[in-house]
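note to self: dont lose this again. the chain is below, predicted strucutre after it. 391 aa total, dont forget to put it in the shared folder this time
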Amino acid sequence: MKEDFVINNGSCHISEKACRRNSHHMLPVMDWMSDIPSDGNETDLVEVQFKNTRKGYYHNNNKLALEKGSMVIVEANPGYDLGEVTLTGRLVPEQIKKSHINLDRYEIRNILRTANEEDEKRAAEAQAKEQETMIKARQLAKSLGLEMKIGDVEYQGDGSKAIFYYIAEGRVDFRQLIKVYAETFRIRIEMKQIGARQEAGRIGGTGPCGRELCCSTWMTQFTSVGTGAARVQNLSLNPQKLAGQCAKLKCCLNYEMPIYEEASKKMPPRNVQLETKDATYYLFSTDPLKSEVTYSTDPHHMVNLESISAKRAKEIIEMNRRGEKPMTLGGKQSVVAAVEIDYQNVVGQDDLTRFDKKKNKNNHGGKNKRGHDKRNQNSKNNEKKHTPNNN
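---
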C-alpha cells in the first residue's frame, strides 16, 4: 500500500498527485483539487517547469496521461525543450491569473510527447556544460568591457540553444557579445536580463529565518521595498541585517508593515510633550503592537524613562490641553542602569566547583569531639541517678 505522506531528506509528498516537492524544485504548487472529482470542463493547459524558477504553460492537445512529475517534450523556438509537469487540471488557469499572464499576448505552444531515456540523457549532457559555459561567458563579457554580470546559463533540452541570464544596472549593448558567444559556443544565444532578487530566486538558499528563500519557493512577483518599512517597524537601519542574499532589502519587511501602520495610527503624536507637576516628558520610543510608549525627561538622552499605555498618554495630552497636569504619568518606571543579577543555578542547584573545595577536617573532628563530650555528659548523669543516698 502506497503511503500518502512521506518525509525523506526534506522532500515532501502529500498525496502523490497533489504535492511533489524535491530539493531541486522551486516555486512548488499544492494541487488541493487533485482529489475532487472532475466535472468534465477541465482545461488542457499544463504547467511545465524547467531549470530553477522558469515555468511555461502548454496545451496538451495529444491528450497525454500526465500528472505531476511527468517529464515531457515541449515545442521550442527552435527545436524542442525538456521539462517537468508541475500542475495540471483546474488550478492551471488560476496560476496563469496569479502570474498576470495575458493569454492574448502569450504564445502557448504544445506538448509533443512524454520524454524517454534518450531525451533525458541528451538534456543531462547539455546541462553538464552550463557551469563551464557560464565561467567562460563571464570572461568574454569582461574582456569586452561590458558592465554586466552573467548570473546563470540554461541550455535547452536538445542542446541547440542557451539562455544567458545577466544582471546590469543600465542598458547594455551586447550585440558584439552575442556574436562572440555564438562563435565560441556554437549554439543559438538568447540574452535575458534579470534583477538581483530574481537571481537569488534562481540560485536559491536559506534565509536568516531558517526557511528557504521566499523568492525561490512561492514569490512570483517582486514589489519594491524601502527603508520606510523598517522605520515603521522600529527596526535598526543596519544594512547587514536588513539586506537579504540579493544584497537588497528583504522582501519580508513588507509582510507585517500594514499591521504596524494600522497600529501606529492609535499611537500619540511624536512631537507632543507630556506635562506633569514634577517634570516634562518627551517621547523616546513606541511599541505599536503592545500599544505602549516610553517617555524621557530629556529630549536627547535616556533619563528617567517611564513606559505607559498609548491610551494613558492621550489622556494626559487631553488634560494638558485643558491646562491640567497630573501628578505623575502613572506608568511603570523603567530601569535604565544595568542591574547586576546574581547567578542562579537551576540545574540541580549544584555548584560547579563543589568538588574543588577541600574538606575541613577540623569540623569533622569537632563534631566527633562534641559527640564524645555529649556521651560523657550523659554517662555522668546516669551515674548520678543510680548513686545510693548514704543519708
